[in-house]
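Field reference: sequence -> structure
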Amino acid sequence: MYNHERRDQMIVYLKRLVLFVFFVGWAPLVLSPVWILARLFSVRFNEFIAVQLRLIVTIGDLVVAGIIVSLSAFIFLGLIEDLEKPKTYFSP
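Structure field:
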């Protein structure tokens, strides 16, 4: 019985780790509008276009990174769900 309790505890820790990585992956995208506004108000007008181009590239990179983190989090959660299922063996 001890092994089952230990395995269940490990599954809980793995789920928490995956969700933590998921939220950390999306945190920069959520915080980027605040950073963008701070940058826009501190930049002179002649540098505005260059800053806009850098921000578009940065936001694109953050979205792609967030999508990759999301997909990997869902894959890992699916693998963890497979660990939770009881194994049944059929003898011929």
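Note: Residues 2-84 form one domain.
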